[in-house]
Specification:
By secondary structure, this protein is an alpha/beta fold. The chain has a domain at about 5-115 and about 205-220: Peroxisomal Thiolase, Chain A, domain 1. The chain has helices spanning about 20-35, 55, 65-70, 85-95, 115-120, 135-150, 155-165, 180-185, 215-220, 250-260, 265-270, 280-290, 305-310, 315-330; strands spanning about 5-15, 45-50, 75-80, 100-110, 190, 195, 205-215, 225-235, 275, 345-350, 355-365. The chain has a 9-stranded mixed β-sheet with strand order 3-2-4-7-1-8-11-10-9. Strands 5-6 form a two-stranded antiparallel ribbon. Strand 5 (about 190) and strand 6 (about 195) form a beta hairpin. The radius of gyration is 19 Å and the shape is globular.
Length: about 375
């Protein structure tokens, strides 16, 4: 694919960031990314902005992006979806030859939202799916069907929570890292049977910015280049009643798209690690199945602690996982560094009530398929 990650910047995660506006979060992440890439903002050809107006609380939310990213009077392409979907768009734009260097941005200012459950409820069909209960009821239905058909148990899901939160103690960007026993997870306050409170990622604030460029521009400048070798994205049926709640069909499709581009036939053997959405703990297991990735120890799965430890960052969730994947491939992940990774898969899910997912494969070295 010949698209290179030149620099990454991440500002967060914060359960509350009252002293910093969302614009300042974006500007800080962008400054970090540009310093990491060894560039100035004027060298960029444009930006890809991943925002959802309703979550941001502003109509045309991306209108605030050019100043923060330093791309005034340049192209800004808006994707109302996860960061990884925007990254896929940036890759395609660079491959057209019309752009040489772009920045991809996403953020969360969840602490600005007074009624987060009402925002989630709004995403459901107003006639058939807004049932006067917590909109997280769909996660309970998903988990019930997934456990019934997969062979996993509630104890396995509780173990995911305990594992992700504990391993993130070595990650300074994870505010919800903790020592937690699986029994504590199972006995916690119920949300939507069998989902309990610790199985749900808590909202947090953060911003992510990533500079990507064509090889001929990136390689002479990049400090530690990382190569994007495959991208894929898909959406499952938008009608909840017509979806198989026990699987993530969108992840299966997106993963196969990315694997085909990257030349991967056996993900468990060819990937050294994966990041998958764990906005609800059972979804980590569901997404791993869809990606055909097996690691019974889970040592190479979400080494940053995932969203359960770093928080639900809305459209920046995939960006947080991607940021850590780049750090892993550079050998700069610190206490949660996995051993000598060369190739990593990153997956993102937009959350309830969707089955909209994206997958990206990144390499420490350039590969030709």
């Amino acid at each position: 694919m010949n698209v290179v990650v030149m620099g990454v910047g991440f500002c967060g995660s914060f359960p509350m960031s009252g002293g910093v506006s969302y614009r300042e979060l974006i500007a800080r992440a962008a400054s970090m990314a540009y310093a990491d890439a060894g560039i100035e903002a004027w060298e960029l050809d444009g930006a890809v902005s991943c925002e959802e107006d309703f979550v941001s609380g502003y109509a045309i939310a991306d209108e605030y992006v050019p100043d923060q990213l330093g791309v005034q009077r340049k192209s800004v392409y808006t994707v109302p979806g996860d960061f990884l979907q925007g990254l896929g768009s940036a890759v395609m734009q660079i491959q057209t030859g019309q752009y040489k260097m772009l920045v991809v941005e996403a953020y969360s200012k969840a602490s600005n939202i007074l009624s987060k459950e009402e925002v989630l409820r709004f995403a459901f069909d107003p006639i058939w799916n807004r049932l006067g209960v917590s909109p997280k009821y769909l996660a309970g239905l998903e988990m019930q069907q997934f456990l019934a058909g997969s062979g996993y148990s509630e104890e396995d899901v509780a173990q995911i929570v305990a594992m992700n939160k504990e391993r993130a103690i070595g990650n300074p960007l994870a505010p919800f890292a903790n020592h937690l026993a699986p029994s504590d997870v199972l006995s916690a306050r119920p949300i939507a049977d069998p989902v309990t409170e610790p199985m749900v990622a808590r909202p947090a604030d953060a911003a992510i910015a990533v500079v990507v460029a064509a090889e001929d521009v990136a390689l002479p400048k990049a400090r530690k280049p990382v190569f994007i070798s495959g991208t894929g994205w898909a959406s499952g049926n938008s009608v909840v009643e017509r979806r198989d709640l026990a699987i993530s069909e969108a992840t299966e499709i997106a993963a196969e798209m990315a694997y085909k581009e990257a030349g991967i036939t056996d993900p468990s053997e060819e990937l050294d690690g994966v990041y998958v959405s764990d906005l609800f703990a059972h979804r980590q297991l569901m997404h791993l199945d869809a990606m055909r990735y097996i690691d019974d120890s889970f040592n190479t799965v979400n080494p940053d602690g995932g969203s359960l430890a770093m928080g639900d960052l809305f459209e920046a969730n995939g960006g947080a996982r991607f940021y850590d994947a780049v750090q892993q491939l550079r050998g700069e992940a610190g206490a949660h560094q996995i051993k000598n990774p060369k190739r990593i898969g990153v997956q993102a899910w937009r959350g309830l009530p969707t089955d909209t997912c994206a997958v990206v494969v990144v390499d420490a070295e350039r590969r030709t398929v």
